[in-house]
């Protein structure tokens, strides 16, 4: 290890990207519960021209990055209080459009696809080279064309609907959701009132390759409507015949 600079991460060499990447300072959000890894990633990204804000739990990430969205979010999937994919969906439901890179120890195709269906933009499997993470962060920031100001102003009443830590609908009487119910409702909320096609909801709610009929999706939506009422929410899920569903 060189004076204060790690030469490897998880047994792989770390190369500096200073010579190749010269960009404006990026605001990066990092949610990782492993103290040592969080410190290494933070120090490495700061050397590559990033300002890094860190959180440890999913609940903290939702609070911190909803109030002040980063340019890019690096999000561990295996958090102590929530699945990182659920955290991503909760942020998307709040109108946060910052690109998300998932960190995970799992490399199965189904896991990667579920991360993309949850609203993620990239996927990095541990162990990984810190230089690769830095390059991916900068690349996502360059490709991100959405205006964060526009996304933040979409629909604050929708943003408060989901609680990823408790896997529940927030409201006067919080109501628990099954994992599938949560993923389906989060996908509908993230659309901000636009119609979400049936195929997209099935891809978000169920594992890759699952055989899900229209009647199964309809049954889940009916349960979501009932739970929204139980939680005292004014929102409901409206059917757009022949297309899909939207939050109304």
- CATH topology-level fold name of the largest domain: Rossmann fold
In spatial order, strands of the major sheet run 4-3-5-6-7
> What is the overall number of helices?
10
Helix content: 40-55%
Regions with pLDDT < 50 over 5+ consecutive residues? 1-23, 145-157
Shape label: globular
Overall pLDDT score: 82
Detailed description of the structure:
With 248 residues, the protein is α/β, with parallel strands linked by helices. It folds into 2 domains: 143 residues, Rossmann fold, CATH 3.40.50; 93 residues, Winged helix-like DNA-binding domain superfamily/Winged helix DNA-binding domain (Arc Repressor Mutant, subunit A, Orthogonal Bundle), CATH 1.10.10. Helix content is 41%, strand content 19%. The protein is built from 10 helices and 13 strands. The strands form 4 sheets. It has a 5-stranded parallel beta sheet, sandwiched between helices. It has a 3-stranded antiparallel beta sheet with strand order 8-9-10, with helices on one face. The longest helix has 17 residues. The chain starts with 7 loop residues before the first strand and ends with a strand. The N terminus is likely disordered.
What are the defining features of this structure?
about 250 residues; alpha/beta; Rossmann fold; Arc Repressor Mutant, subunit A; three-stranded antiparallel sheet; 10 helices; 13 strands; about 40% helix; disordered N terminus
What's the topology here?
Blueprint: E1 8-9, E2 12-13, E3 26-31, H1 35-47, E4 50-55, H2 58-67, E5 72-76, H3 84-93, E6 100-104, H4 109-117, E7 122-125, H5 130-143, H6 148-152, H7 156-159, E8 162-163, E9 168-169, E10 175-176, H8 179-190, E11 196-197, H9 198-205, H10 214-230, E12 237-240, E13 244-247
Parallel strand pairs: 3-4, 3-5, 5-6, 6-7
Antiparallel strand pairs: 1-2, 8-9, 9-10, 11-13, 12-13
Helix pairs in contact: 2-3, 3-8, 8-9, 8-10
